[in-house]
Design brief:
The protein is an all-beta fold. The protein folds into two domains: 2-9 and 19-47 and 147-191, Carboxypeptidase-like, regulatory domain (Immunoglobulin-like, Sandwich), CATH 2.60.40; 55-136, Immunoglobulin-like (Sandwich), CATH 2.60.40.420. Helix content is 0%, strand content 48%. The protein is globular and about 55 Å long. Residues 1-17 have low confidence and may be disordered. The structure holds copper (II) ion (CU). Copper (II) ion binds next to loops.
């Protein structure tokens, strides 16, 4: 769980007239070198950041949530469309957003607005194994790693940020650090020990009806 800043790659040609925005690339891997998926990478600015008006969706299909991790800016609404031919019952007992969408099929009438920052764990009352996480952050600058362990954040305005990492199976936040962004691409490598996602033993669909 140690942050290892690996390389700073300032552009050789400084261009004062260029738009000052940079990008950040993070590579997350276990100490053995296995890529880590779903690592949240968050840049918080000291000054208030603009709010991106966005909508997001967490789908239920094949008795799983998809995606497993969703990162949103505070105030964002998330839809919970059910793409299975039977009902789900989505809930959260997490402090930043407690809610439930009782047994439903198709698309619920209203999206859920996540109005406080923090971690929200989602479950389904019908299917115990279903789990997903929403990380609500007070910044528009965030990303998560893909299967290759890479996250890419573009168009980061020049300035000083607090860099935060998080992963659902670590539960704790990793140490933060200050990061100065300029008109350049910054690459960082992160090593962390993340337990593998447990396999889901889903009962067969036949007979149960759901
Ligand atoms: Cu369900």
């Amino acid at each position: 769980m140690i942050l290892a800043p690996k390389a700073w790659l300032p552009l050789l040609l400084a261009c004062s007239a260029c738009a000052t925005a940079g990008s950040l690339e993070v590579v997350a891997a276990t100490p053995e070198g296995k890529p880590i998926e779903d690592f949240a990478v968050v840049l918080e600015a000291a000054a208030p950041s603009p709010t991106k008006k966005t909508k997001s969706a967490i789908i239920q299909r094949d008795r799983e949530f998809n995606p497993y991790l969703t990162i949103i800016q505070t105030g964002t609404a998330i839809e919970f469309p059910n793409r299975d031919p039977f009902k789900h019952h989505v809930y959260s007992f997490s402090q930043p957003k407690m809610f439930e969408i009782k047994l439903y099929a198709g698309k619920p009438a209203k999206p859920v607005v996540f109005d406080k920052p923090g971690v929200v764990a989602l479950g389904c009352n019908i299917h115990d194994w279903m789990e997903a996480y929403v990380l609500v952050v007070d910044t528009p600058y965030f990303g998560k790693t893909g299967q290759d362990g890479r996250a890419h954040l573009d168009n980061i305005p020049e300035g000083v940020y607090r860099l935060r990492y998080w992963h659902p199976r670590l539960m704790d936040e990793l140490p933060t650090r200050e990061l100065r962004m300029g008109n350049e691409n910054v690459r960082l490598t992160l090593k962390a020990t993340v337990p593998p996602r447990p396999a889901h033993n889903k009962p067969p669909l036949e007979g149960s009806g759901y």
